[in-house]
Specification:
about 170 residues; Oxidized Rhodanese, domain 1; 5-stranded parallel sheet
Length: about 170
Amino acid sequence: MAHDATHARAALGRRGFLTSFGALGVVATLFACDRNPAGSGTTAGGPAESKKAPLLPPSDLNGRLADVKAGKIAVLHVGPQILWKRERVPGSRWVGEAGKSEGLAAFEAAVKALPADVEVVAYCGCCPTEDCPNVRPARRALAERAKGSVLDLPTNFRTDWIDKGFAVERG
């Protein structure tokens, strides 16, 4: 009986540690994705939100990764570099946090440098696409591009891409 109680306390301790470790990851992501950055423009639903690039389902992009590799699609990460460095859409490149003025300028310059026939897909993945302070300005910036969209991640990159078994680049 005493052995069972000791084993139960040890298991609870491991679960508590793993839960705490998971919570730290959530907190780190929230701090990495500043939800009220300077230069992010109006709040969701405001006048600047009326023109936006369309959303692209993750399964569609995953099925077209050969086009990314061939240079027909440019996938641009517009969120925190730490997230992109850890796990990302294969072939994507980090251009800066579009929720900050310098990141948005870098994103716009990267898009402008691409030929008009190259499709552009922007994504962040720190939080739901509709709420993301990095995706909102990028989505507005892509609104006028004929071949521009935003990867639709309703929850985050881990849940809507990695956990679905889609291809991932790491490191």
